[in-house]
């Protein structure tokens, strides 16, 4: 990544670099205070634009031209374009999978198999296995995660804790999967080998996930589920009366998992899954399609229903208000707020990077790094800060990785120490930030804001703490052979 600290005629000061961040913190705090759970539906976007305006003013003061800044914004937004397209495709997938009976069938079987007392732990474990197999926390959350959120609603369990369990499991599997893009990116940036990186991550991720499962088991035992078996049976009956329920409805899910596991590109895979859901709706849910088509029962009317599900989602009426809310939604249009949030965040991050303000903040931290523990702590904090400022986990891996790599080498540390540290923070904390691409995606897919589920995404918090523990105790900290000899 190019050094942008010399853009303009004046080098930015540390105070100038901190001002936009302070403005963002104040604006986001006010946003949450004034609007609460609705802060991500417009107010946070405005907060990001105001903070970007503060950074822009500093850039003009430092004699940076608008043309340079505009080019930086375009470059920054282009980083997120792939993610934005996938987000839109996931919206379509949710819409057609609701219409096809895929999500309702997963909910139906989930109600049949899961018990409230161990539901949270099972949710984390199921998501971990799926994500490990396909290497995608996003796909896991948008498919199995959506269904498990539905099961939780059916059992009258906490949506916040369930979303935290989905995120915890999905990110454990993503982090440990050789199919994951971030798991490949981190060792590439640090200069180590993929499978050596994965084996080394097990020392932090393994214990953290075990602790996470124990916490979810304890929460499950204390869960206040007011839903009786008769209530669960009633919901299953309403599902079966509304949709044709069966294992064949899960074929779109199995196809999607196969394509993901065989490392097919994410965007065409997800959109193909959405189109397959539409075909499945026409074949297996003709009654529902005809009901939504109204008076037009022709093939054209049926195709229009599927078309609408892809674009605007579906509105299902089962006779139960809870199920209606659960089974209605989806469509590309449902993701437009998420796209708005990501574009706003990437604009702010791009301006900060182009003006050299982001690197000025990070480079200032190196002066306080003395011990091994403080070096790893600074790297963890920098990755988290980059997730906040750039709103993109890839930038949060690449930028700190390149900036700290030389320091890790100078201290004789094995590259795996850096690669693991990057993943322990950059990958995992991205889902905890509402305006980050990952946090925004999880909010769009699960219907729960990161402000709400973050306290329960235990794995995403415990792993960085585990990394800090190893750093300050020296446990499992690998050194290069020459450094060991010198020591």
From TrEMBL:
It holds the Pfam family Na_H_antiporter. InterPro entries: Na/H_antiport_NhaC, Na/H_Antiport_NhaC-like_C, NhaC_Na-H+_Antiporter, RhesusRHD. Residues 169-475 form the Na+/H+ antiporter NhaC-like C-terminal domain. GO terms for molecular function: antiporter activity. GO terms for cellular component: plasma membrane. Coiled coil: none annotated. Signal peptide: none annotated. PANTHER family: MALATE-2H(+)/NA(+)-LACTATE ANTIPORTER, MALATE-2H(+)_NA(+)-LACTATE ANTIPORTER. This is Na+/H+ antiporter NhaC. It comes from Pseudidiomarina andamanensis. The gene is nhaC.
């Amino acid at each position: 990544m190019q050094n942008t600290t010399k853009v303009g005629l004046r080098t930015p000061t540390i105070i100038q670099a901190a001002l936009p961040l302070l403005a963002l913190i104040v604006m986001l705090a006010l946003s949450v205070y004034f609007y609460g759970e609705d802060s991500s539906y417009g107010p946070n976007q405005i907060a990001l634009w105001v903070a970007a305006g503060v950074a822009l003013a500093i850039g003009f003061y430092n004699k940076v031209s608008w043309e340079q800044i505009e080019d930086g914004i375009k470059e920054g937004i282009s980083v997120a374009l792939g993610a934005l397209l996938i987000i839109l495709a996931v919206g379509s997938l949710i819409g057609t999978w609701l219409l096809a009976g895929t999500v309702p069938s997963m909910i139906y079987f989930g109600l049949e198999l899961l018990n409230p007392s161990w539901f949270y732990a099972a949710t984390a474990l199921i998501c971990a296995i799926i994500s490990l197999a396909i290497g995608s926390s996003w796909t896991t959350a948008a498919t199995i995660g959506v269904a498990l959120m539905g099961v939780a609603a059916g059992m009258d369990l906490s949506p916040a804790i369930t979303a935290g369990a989905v995120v915890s499991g999905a990110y454990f599997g993503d982090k440990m999967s050789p199919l994951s893009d971030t798991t490949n990116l981190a060792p590439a940036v640090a200069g180590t080998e993929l499978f050596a990186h994965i084996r080394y991550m097990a020392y932090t991720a393994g214990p953290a996930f075990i602790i996470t499962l124990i916490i979810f088991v304890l929460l499950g035992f204390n869960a206040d589920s007011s839903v009786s078996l008769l209530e669960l049976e009633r919901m299953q009956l309403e599902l079966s009366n509304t949709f044709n329920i069966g294992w064949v409805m899960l074929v779109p899910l199995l196809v999607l998992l196969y394509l993901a596991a065989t490392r097919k590109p994410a965007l065409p895979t997800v959109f193909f899954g959405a189109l397959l859901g539409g075909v499945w709706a026409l074949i297996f849910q003709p009654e529902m399609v005809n009901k939504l088509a109204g008076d037009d029962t022709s093939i054209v009317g049926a195709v229009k229903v599927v078309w609408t599900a892809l674009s605007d989602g579906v509105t299902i009426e089962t006779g139960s208000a809870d199920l209606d809310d659960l089974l209605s939604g989806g469509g590309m249009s449902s993701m437009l707020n998420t796209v708005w949030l990501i574009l706003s965040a990437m604009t702010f991050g791009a301006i900060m990077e182009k003006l050299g303000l982001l690197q000025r903040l990070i480079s200032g931290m190196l002066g306080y790094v003395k011990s091994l523990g403080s070096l790893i702590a600074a790297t963890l904090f920098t990755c988290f800060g980059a997730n906040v400022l750039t709103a993109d986990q890839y930038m949060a891996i690449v930028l700190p990785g390149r900036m700290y790599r030389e320091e890790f080498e100078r201290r004789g540390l094995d590259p795996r120490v850096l690669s693991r540290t990057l993943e322990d923070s950059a990958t995992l904390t991205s889902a905890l930030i509402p305006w980050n691409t990952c946090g925004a995606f999880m909010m769009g897919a699960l219907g729960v804001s990161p402000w709400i589920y973050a306290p329960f995404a235990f794995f995403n918090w415990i792993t960085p703490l585990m990394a800090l523990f190893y750093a300050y105790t020296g446990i499992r900290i690998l050194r290069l052979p020459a450094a060991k000899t010198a020591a």
